[in-house]
Every structure is written in structure tokens, then in C-alpha cells.
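Q: what sequence does this backbone want?
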């Protein structure tokens, strides 16, 4: 099916005309409703989840650097309003989720998506929840299951456990039957990690996670470490990794890219695994589809339940992204369309 929106009416969208902090550079603009090209869909945004890469793109510090100006917001739940030629994965009226196609991102009323990044949204989740099901949960699932091969009864240590990918890792670890230890910074984030289901929560501001993990495992250590922070957090995690454990390198939110001491991995018999989930969308899209099917099954069964801590309207985007940039948010923060 091929269709256009049939209107040239302007729509609101946040634009980044220059690089800098979100509160300084985001401008609310009137833009034409997008018309999809070959293999694309145009969507009306229901909800758009904020992710740290949105902040990095505003600063010009992310590996993806769209031309200026652009609208940030990669992860959305939306309704398909028109489809381009050759589109087979969605039809007008579908409620979908997935990644937007820059420069037409999700922090606006309308967005564009390439069809290979479009997936049907599960009816069991609200719009805000569905907007959070893609990046974090896919990253967590690929890391824990496809790479680390986590097993029921193992101990999983999750750093930045109150963040987007960390919170998903907690729920996915529990769904896999693991014992989950979450590391956070501050009492509010500790409470949130407990709500997500972590068996034990470590406040890094007042506790040493290395000692807590050793005590909790009778000296054995964590079987799997999920690390989106990097730097010193990675280095110290090697001190509490179990024999034949697996350390998942998920990102470097701490700002420092660590060097791995391979002699240490050798003498302790642990594996270091990197997870760049975005590559699967081009290298193995069928695996992404299969993962989405499994995540929908888990959501429908109540085994995972994306927890949205804050919802805001389109007018609140700059403030919300800045709070995310400054480390002041807990859990997932989501822009929800007016009236939803």
C-alpha cells in the first residue's frame, strides 16, 4: 500500500540547529508533515522515550551525527499515517514501535521510520511503556541471552541499574531466573531498582559493590556483569567476577573508555563481551525480529513491565532531556502526545 498524508499542514517538532546542551539548543519549530520515501512510513507520535544518546546527539558527541538541524528522539510508539513505495511491514493505522529515521526524530508530532525498524506494539503495554520496549530491552536481551548465555540460578550484577538499559537488564535477569544485584547512585534510584525486582541493591555512594557482591555470593562473585558505565566501574567489576564469568561491555556512560587487562581475564577464566545492539539491525535483522517477538511474549505474560517514572508533554522535552543529561532522572522518562 502506498499513500501520503494528503496535507501540507505544519506540525510542531523540536529542532537542534546548533550543538550544545539540550536546554540551550532545542527550539520548537513548525515543520511540514513528513512524506515517506521508498520503504518508509510516516507516523503520528503517541509517545517518545528519552535516551542518553539523544543528549549526546544534541552535544555532537554521539557516533551518529545527523546534519543540522535535526529532531532528536529515536525510540517511539506511534500510529502509521502513510507508507512509501515498497513498504510491506506496516499499513496505515498500525500501532507500532521502533526507531525513527533522522533527521526526522520522535520529539515532535510526526516522524519518519525506515520499515526495517518498525515493529508492531503489544496491546498489553501503554503507549509510554511501548515506546521503551525497543533499545533498552533489546540491548539487555541480546547481551544477557545471545552473548552471555545467562542461566537460571546465576548471579547477575547490573551497573546503572536505575537507567534505561540497566532497568531492562534487571527485569530480563529476573525473568531468566537469575539472582540480580543492582548498583545505583542515591536512595531514590535504590528504591526504583527494588521496585524493578532487584534482589539486592547497592548504593555506590555509601557502599563498595565489590565487597557486597563477594559477601552475597560467599566469595564466588557474579556470573554475569552488565556494565553500561565503563571506566573504573569495569576495572573494579573484574575484582568480583566469578570463575567462568562474563562481563558485558554495554557502554561508557561514566565518560572513560577502559583498557582490559587480558592477563587478568586469562588467570581468572572470565570472558569480556561487547554488545553494540544497533549493528544487529543491519547484520542480522531476523534476530531483532525474533527478539521483539520474545519481548512481546514476556510483556504479555507480565514477566517484564517497562516502568515509566515520568511523563511529559511536547513542551517539556528540553527540560526532561536536560535532567537526563545531568543524571537527575530515575527510570524512563517519556514524552506523551497531548490528550493521551
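A:
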Amino acid at each position: 500500500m502506498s499513500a501520503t498524508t494528503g496535507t501540507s499542514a505544519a506540525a510542531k517538532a523540536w529542532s537542534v540547529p546548533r550543538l550544545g546542551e539540550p536546554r540551550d539548543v532545542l527550539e520548537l519549530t513548525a515543520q511540514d508533515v513528513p512524506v515517506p520515501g521508498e520503504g518508509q512510513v510516516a507516523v503520528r507520535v503517541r509517545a517518545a522515550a528519552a535516551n542518553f544518546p539523544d543528549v549526546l546527539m544534541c552535544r555532537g558527541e554521539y557516533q551518529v551525527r545527523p546534519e543540522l538541524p535535526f529532531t532528536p528522539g529515536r525510540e517511539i510508539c506511534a500510529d502509521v499515517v502513510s507508507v512509501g513505495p515498497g513498504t510491506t511491514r506496516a499499513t496505515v493505522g498500525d500501532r507500532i514501535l521502533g526507531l525513527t529515521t533522522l533527521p526526522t526524530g520522535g520529539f515532535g508530532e510526526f516522524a519518519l521510520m525506515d520499515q526495517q525498524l518498525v515493529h508492531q506494539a503489544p496491546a498489553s503495554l501503554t503507549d509510554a511503556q511501548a515506546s521503551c520496549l525497543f533499545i533498552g530491552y533489546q540491548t539487555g536481551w541480546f547481551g544477557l541471552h545471545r552473548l552471555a548465555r545467562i542461566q537460571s540460578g546465576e548471579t547477575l550484577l547490573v551497573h546503572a541499574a536505575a537507567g534505561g538499559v540497566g532497568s531492562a537488564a534487571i527485569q530480563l535477569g529476573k525473568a531468566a531466573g537469575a539472582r540480580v544485584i543492582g548498583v545505583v547512585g542515591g536512595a531514590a534510584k535504590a528504591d526504583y531498582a527494588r521496585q524493578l525486582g532487584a534482589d539486592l541493591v547497592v548504593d555506590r555512594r555509601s557502599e563498595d559493590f565489590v565487597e557486597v557482591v563477594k559477601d552475597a555470593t560467599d566469595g564466588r562473585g557474579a556470573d554475569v556483569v552488565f556494565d553500561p558505565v565503563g571506566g573504573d566501574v569495569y576495572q573494579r567489576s573484574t575484582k568480583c567476577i566469578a570463575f567462568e564469568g562474563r562481563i558485558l561491555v554495554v557502554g561508557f556512560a561514566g565518560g572513560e573508555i577502559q583498557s582490559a587487562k587480558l592477563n587478568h581475564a586469562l588467570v581468572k577464566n572470565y570472558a569480556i563481551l561487547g554488545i553494540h545492539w544497533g549493528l544487529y539491525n543491519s547484520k542480522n535483522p531476523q534476530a531483532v525480529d525474533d527478539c521483539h517477538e520474545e519481548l512481546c511474549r514476556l510483556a504479555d505474560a507480565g514477566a517484564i513491565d517497562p516502568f515509566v517514572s515520568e511523563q511529559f508533554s511536547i513542551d517539556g522535552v528540553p527540560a526532561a532531556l536536560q535532567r537526563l543529561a545531568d543524571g537527575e532522572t530515575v527510570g524512563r522518562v517519556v514524552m506523551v502526545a497531548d490528550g493521551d
